[in-house]
């Protein structure tokens, strides 16, 4: 064979090999797709996707990621069937043929809630129940033109909002607002409700959200947070919108607010700015002008606030990576002047009363930043990373004067004190979760790691002069003049590893292991001022403390889950936790203590779908609660010598049992919804205060004296504390009258424990709260709402001077917006608050009426010039009655009173015409 023939054969062989390799590689294709809700177009997470052959035998299985995406790679040519299933939706099946290119499938799932009477339904259902989500159609609720999202959300059955904009749903605090399933101002969910206009909302979803790890693996780890998801209208997902307002009034009152948003599909940018001196202390209070919904305002006084917030969301790498982040800045100055009348009702202080006057000037600057990255590396790998950062600087200058009396007239003590405190806190942390799904259906592994580190520094100056009287004559004068310097830090991390495995088509097992560590260090040095030299003296060992606390936990467990499609799902598990606590005190006396704790943690969760509209859920979990470093420090704080406090290094961790039973019933055809939940909590080793009170001078330690009329407090553990809370919410739309009726009822019973003068005291308080809301659904030119809330609380304490007493409140609020004569518009908000009397004292009431008269102008009537009046009757007052087991306190503080303001508002709306509905305002 000559050389040329040899080279020719080699080239032919190499060509054949490369061709075969090329053909083999070309013959491998990908089947991918996206799954959405057919009505809301929201991507669906956790939908099971099965790839079947022509004989319907299972070849591959996966589930959709948070973006609703799935993928099957390296598939040969042939005919296949794609089957999508989810407990809350109708199944979807489609045939596909791989020939010579990849295939993408868009799947829209319809709700599985199909009932016979729904055949006659036309249009979108008013309310629906899907898994852990209750969804309401925004069209069923009416808001004024250019209203913010909060005015719509508070009309949802079971939703409540307090005077600071905090939201509760079905009795639980809403911790997060998301938009179209994505993070949106996660640092402060209240901002989201003042950023989004109500008119862009298509659906409101109330979600009992599980952890990312639980949603991926299908096993419930007991972690829950109440989340509201705002689904935007399809034609409002791209555009620029926002608002701007400025106002100036008498006595130099001013308010400036700006919000600008740019939505471009998955890309969202939002910027908020505010500045005012009319007690709008956060973004949720924008436009309220110092008004409020309740009466818990005695610590607010008069405030100046400057704040800014920015949020960013976007998807990358073909929608496989979801990135979000937000930053929030706030600077405020608050002046509070309060008068308090205190009547003691417990123990040997039951014959005492106190009159107190207090002044404080509080300054605070805060920075918060959060981010989150969700990356679906492939169809079976997911990473979730969420870092956070915060910094806070606090300054407080104040004075306090009070006099304590015996039997209403005999002077027992008198005190005048001044303090100046400054502190900073810095915290950085994050959470990283990696999840992997094996080829075998049901087999997953997840690893989650979280950690944080913080520093705390403080400087406090205290000057107090206290006079003690005996038989109405001056007996002794004590002076407390010192300065304390505190430096501390803390850190912690929490790691969790879990593995799941299918036993059968309907049952699974999970193995989990958790390791957690916390470390806290505090060094407090107190120096007495030397009157003779005006300088700091030597370190006061008794009032100083250097303390380090370490906790280490190991927890392992096994869980079993059974899921019968569309009917029953339950999970049962048991884990064991072992913890070791190490305390190391250096000052005043070096002391090292060590303790270990062991506990079993059972868990149970069950969901029973009675039918397509009714559901019953039961959850039982146990948890432990670690004492704080301040509770553990054996440090005597006598900055106030009539209220001396100490820590307890021997405290045990609390062990909690939580049981929740929830029933949901929704009527898609009418929009009527009913939610009932019963919560029971029982705690062993609950941390409570042991209080020592005295009406004579008492020596606590060698050089620490408790004056007459004072109290000494130290935390201890007690067993058997429990609470029961039953919450019901009922939403009734009356289409004929164009009304939405919202009823919320809460019944509660609490068993409280304390130790008074070494005597174990068990007290009870129980009561009921009823809220009724009526909102019109006529049109945007006439919107009216009436909300009424009444609360009755009864307390029993067998050792109290008043063994049983009751307190009740009434709060009524009426809002009205009326547009007439084409461009004139009236806003009105009338608030009435009544607090009952107690111990023969009269009740208190407050009437607050705010109103404005304005005119709309510009072509689209999107600008408004108005004259606003706050507190027209000039009756605003901050009054509160606080009842505890020890005392009844009436507090009155300074507050914002009547003012007038000229305000200019502008609303921006510009949505892209490609969405099918172009608006430019």
Automatic annotation (TrEMBL):
Listed InterPro entries: Beta-barrel_TonB_sf, CarboxyPept-like_regulatory, OMP_b-brl_3
Endpoints of the signal sequence: 1-26
Subcellular location as annotated: Cell outer membrane
Domain Outer membrane protein beta-barrel, first and last residues per copy: 437-906
Protein name, UniProt field: Outer membrane beta-barrel protein
Pfam families the record matches: CarboxypepD_reg, OMP_b-brl_3
Keywords tagged on the record: Cell outer membrane, Membrane, Signal
């Amino acid at each position: 064979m000559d050389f040329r023939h040899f080279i020719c054969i080699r080239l032919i062989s190499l060509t054949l090999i490369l061709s075969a390799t090329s053909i083999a590689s070309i013959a491998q294709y990908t089947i991918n797709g996206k799954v959405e809700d057919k009505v809301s177009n929201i991507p669906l997470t956790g939908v099971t996707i099965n790839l079947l052959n022509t004989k319907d035998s299972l070849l591959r299985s996966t589930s959709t990621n948070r973006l609703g995406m799935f993928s099957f790679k390296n598939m040969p040519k042939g005919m296949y069937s794609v089957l999508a299933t989810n407990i809350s939706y109708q199944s979807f099946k489609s045939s596909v043929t791989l020939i010579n290119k990849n295939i993408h499938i868009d799947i829209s799932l319809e709700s599985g809630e199909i009932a016979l009477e729904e055949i006659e339904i036309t249009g979108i259902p008013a309310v629906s129940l899907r898994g852990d989500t209750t969804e309401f159609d925004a069209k069923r609720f009416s808001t004024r033109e250019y209203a913010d999202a909060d005015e719509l959300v508070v009309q949802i059955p079971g939703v409540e909002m307090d005077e600071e904009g905090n939201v509760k749903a079905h009795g639980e605090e809403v911790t997060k607002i998301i938009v179209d399933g994505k993070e949106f101002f996660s640092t402060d969910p209240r901002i989201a409700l003042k950023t989004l206009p109500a008119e862009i909302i298509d659906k409101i979803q109330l979600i009992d959200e599980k952890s990312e790890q639980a949603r991926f693996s299908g096993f419930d780890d007991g972690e829950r947070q109440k989340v509201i998801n705002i689904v935007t209208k399809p034609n409002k997902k791209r555009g620029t919108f926002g608002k701007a307002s400025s106002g100036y009034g008498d006595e130099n009152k001013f308010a400036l607010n700006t919000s600008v948003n740019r939505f471009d599909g998955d890309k969202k940018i939002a910027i908020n700015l505010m500045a005012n001196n009319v007690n709008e202390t956060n973004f949720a209070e924008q436009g309220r002008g110092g008004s409020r919904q309740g009466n818990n305002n005695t610590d607010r006084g008069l405030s100046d606030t400057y704040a800014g917030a920015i949020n960013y969301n976007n998807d990358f790498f073909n929608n496989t990576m979801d990135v979000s982040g937000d930053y929030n800045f706030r600077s405020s100055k608050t002046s509070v002047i309060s008068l308090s009348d205190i009547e003691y009702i417990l123990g040997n202080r039951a014959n005492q009363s106190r009159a107190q006057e207090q002044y404080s000037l509080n300054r605070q600057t805060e920075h918060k930043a959060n981010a989150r990255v969700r990356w679906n590396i492939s169809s079976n790998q997911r990473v979730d990373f969420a870092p956070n950062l915060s910094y806070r600087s606090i300054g407080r200058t104040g004075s306090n004067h009070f006099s304590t009396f015996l039997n209403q007239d005999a002077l027992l003590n008198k005190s005048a004190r001044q303090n100046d405190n400054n502190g900073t806190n810095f915290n950085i942390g994050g959470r990283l979760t990696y999840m992997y799904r094996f080829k075998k259906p049901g087999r997953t592994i997840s690893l989650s790691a979280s950690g944080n580190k913080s520093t705390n520094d403080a400087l406090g100056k205290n000057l107090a002069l206290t006079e003690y009287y005996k038989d109405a004559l001056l007996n002794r004068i004590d002076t407390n003049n010192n300065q304390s310097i505190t430096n501390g830090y803390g850190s912690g991390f929490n790691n969790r590893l879990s593995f799941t495995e299918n036993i059968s088509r309907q049952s699974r097992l999970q193995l989990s292991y958790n390791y957690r560590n916390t470390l806290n260090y505090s060094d407090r040095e107190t120096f007495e001022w030397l009157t003779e030299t005006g300088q700091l003296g030597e370190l006061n060992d008794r009032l100083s403390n250097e303390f380090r606390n370490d906790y280490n936990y190991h927890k392992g467990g096994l869980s079993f889950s059974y899921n019968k499609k569309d009917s029953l799902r339950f999970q049962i598990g048991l884990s064991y936790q072992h913890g070791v606590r190490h305390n190391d005190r250096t000052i005043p006396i070096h002391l090292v203590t060590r303790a270990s704790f062991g506990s079993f943690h059972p868990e149970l969760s069950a969901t029973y779908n009675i039918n397509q509209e009714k559901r019953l859920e039961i959850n039982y979990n146990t948890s432990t609660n670690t004492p704080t470093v301040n509770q553990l420090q054996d440090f005597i704080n006598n900055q106030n010598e009539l209220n001396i406090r100490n820590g307890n290094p021997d405290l045990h961790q609390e062990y909690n049992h939580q049981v929740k039973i929830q029933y949901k019933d929704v009527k898609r055809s009418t929009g009527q919804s009913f939610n009932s939940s019963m919560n029971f909590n029982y705690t062993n080793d609950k941390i409570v205060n042991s209080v020592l009170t005295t009406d004579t001078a008492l020596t606590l330690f060698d050089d620490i004296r408790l004056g007459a009329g004072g109290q000494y407090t130290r935390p201890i553990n007690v067993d058997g504390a429990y609470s029961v809370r039953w919450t019901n919410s009922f939403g009734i739309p009356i289409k004929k009258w164009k009304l939405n009726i919202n009823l919320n009822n809460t019944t509660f019973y609490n068993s409280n424990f304390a130790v008074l003068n070494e005597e174990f005291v068990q007290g009870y308080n129980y009561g009921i709260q009823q809220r009724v809301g009526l909102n019109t659904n006529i049109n945007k030119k006439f919107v009216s709402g009436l909300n009424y809330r009444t609360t009755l609380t009864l307390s029993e304490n067998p050792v109290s001077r008043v063994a049983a007493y009751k307190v009740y409140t009434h709060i009524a609020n009426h809002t009205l917006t009326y547009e007439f004569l084409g461009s004139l518009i009236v806003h009105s908000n009338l608030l009435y608050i009544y607090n009952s009397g107690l111990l023969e004292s009269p009740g208190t009431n407050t009437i607050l009426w705010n109103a404005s008269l304005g005119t709309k102008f510009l072509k689209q009537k999107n600008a408004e010039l108005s004259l606003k009046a706050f507190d027209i009757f000039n009756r605003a007052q901050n009054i509160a009655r606080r009842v505890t087991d020890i005392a009844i306190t009436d507090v009155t503080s300074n507050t914002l009173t009547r003012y007038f303001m000229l305000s200019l508002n502008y609303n921006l709306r510009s949505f892209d015409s490609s969405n099918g509905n172009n608006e430019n305002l």
